[in-house]
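Look over this one:
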Amino acid sequence: MNPIQMVDLKSQYLRIKPEIDAAIQRVLDSTAFIQGSPVFDFEQQLAQYAGSKHVVSCGNGTDALLAALMALGIGEGDEVIIPAFTFIAAVEVVALLGATPVLVDVCDDSFNMDVHALEKAVTPKTKVILPVHLYGQCADMELILKIAKKHNIKVIEDACQAVGATYTFSDGAMKQAGTMGDVGCLSFFPSKNLGCYGDGGAMMTQDADLCERLRAICKHGSKEKYHHQLVGLNSRLDTLQAAILMAKLPHLDDFIAARGFAAQYYYEALKGLDWIELPVIKENTTHTFHQFTLRVKEGKRDALKQYLAAKGIPSMIYYPVPAHLQPAYQYLNYKEGDFPVAEQLCREVLSLPMHTELSENQLQYICKTIVDCPL
């Protein structure tokens, strides 16, 4: 059995090596390393895949969030509501613009934004709701959009972990993560379900004017070269990364299916352990399993992580500290106990190896090791 990795990018590359190498070689032959045709071809193909009218690529997922806020005019005095249990980027970009991150707790089952807490957090200063589709599963977008419409608030979806996930509304309409709000933000960090071989990101929108504004912001605020209508960024998806993503996009559904197979194996093998809580999949969303995250009860999380490591099984804690307890955000004046679910999750969550190349032998070994754990 090959060594188990948290993410096995090399094996995935070797599986589609001819396509990747050919895509890279075409860019090298063209020498159009910035804003070459693969960038715009990829944007069109991603838009078609996701069912979005417009896609604007950029340098990374954090820039996508930042540009989206900038395009909506967010700044000092504005409030943006964000879940307390998330990667820090969503909070960080709000703070960078001088706006106020307003944190809310998350649901005990899905770990996504608690819509009841969300509505209570809305004030006249609230300009944006920023739900995060955590680990590959959509937040409750129907209720989030309803609250946003009621209060005339914009919605930016952080879909950086959820490309390809779908959400079904009560009327049967089905939409992909990132296509339901005013802007949806994606990351193509290498470990993502659709990852490039460096940094990359994108924004999706159904609004042509907003698309034009997003595109300008990512080019130094310029719609015409050397003429700068807006304060902007230098944030571009380079041609090599676009070519790699374009080669990988036709495989995305297969990648998601492979992750689903691994997840189902985990579910079947670990369902009898009363000290472990397996991921909950909500009825109205699919789960693309960017991560397969357990809740380890009875204070056993850290011991299990050490035990697995001793057996050659990597695991990760996403995330060990909630946003409101991070040192950089103490100025927001939150305190321990303000978001009890987020705090409890930080003590219990543990993500198992999850990628497209996990073999049945590897999955069997991981699960047997957990089942036989003497903790």
